[in-house]
Each structure stands twice: as C-alpha cells, then as structure tokens.
Write a structure and sequence with these properties.
Blueprint lengths: L1 E2 L7 H14 L6 E7 L1 H12 L7 E6 L2 E7 H10 L4 H16 L7 H17 L10
Parallel strand pairs: 1-2, 2-4
Antiparallel strand pairs: 3-4
Length: 136
C-alpha cells in the first residue's frame, strides 16, 4: 500500500477492507497493490491508461499475479461530505469496488451493475460500514 494522501488512511483498516473483498470473492490469497492518492494523481493515471484526463474515484487493473487498485481519497472525502457519510466508508467502497472488478465483477450493464452493488453492500455490511446506494 502506498498512501500519497494527507491525512493518511489507517493501514490496518485498509487491510481489513481488502481482505473482506477478497474473502467475499473466494480469493483470499490474491495479492493487491493499492495506491491512495488525490484527484490530480488519479487523473494522471486515468489519462495514461484510459485516455481520459479527468479524475475518477477508483481505477483497477487485473494482473497475472494479482491486482492493482488506485483510489482518490480526495474524491472520497468530497463525496462523503456530499452524502453525509464517512470518508472511511467511502474509501472502503472504492477499494471494494476496485477489487471486485479485478476478480470478474463488472458494472457495464444494468444486471451486472445490480450484481456489483449487491456484492459491495455485502462486503461493506461485513465491515459494518454503510454508504449511499448509488453507482460508485
């Protein structure tokens, strides 16, 4: 885990979130590399890998040996304020969403999106976290 955002996100919390998502997906031993950054950092990566120079909440990449997940903590903070939730819950949602993408979940059509949202809710419930019930 690399945390480039201030204040730092609690590492033990992040590890619990990643473990819960991987356990849910039946891949508890999968390696996950995680970068916590700001909007400028994720926008640069979004442009490099997706050709879109705008910031986004989370990006994920499935790799042969595991996965990489990038989260904008700045976006999480802003969205948490807008939706009257906690930044921890919002960061957790983004991590779970990214990990689920790397293990085969998708949200490109309505049925897939419902499946993804249900999975996110189950993982977050296991962690005793709640977030808004809209697209991540």
């Amino acid at each position: 885990m690399v945390d480039r955002f201030r204040p730092r996100t609690d590492r033990a919390f992040v590890e619990r979130v990643v473990a819960a998502a991987l356990d849910f997906a039946g891949r508890p031993d999968q390696d996950v590399s995680l970068l916590l950054t700001d909007d400028a950092g994720i926008a640069e990566l979004h442009d490099t890998f997706m050709g879109d120079p705008t910031p986004t909440d989370v990006m994920s990449f499935a790799l042969d040996a595991g996965s990489e997940v990038v989260v904008s903590v700045e976006t999480a903070r802003r969205v948490a304020r807008q939706n009257a939730t906690t930044i921890r819950a919002e960061v957790a949602l983004y991590i779970v969403h990214g990990v689920l993408h790397t293990v085969g979940y998708d949200d490109k059509d309505e049925a897939a999106r419902r499946r993804m949202r249900a999975a996110e809710r189950q993982v977050l419930a296991k962690l005793r976290l709640q977030v808004r019930d809209v697209d991540a």
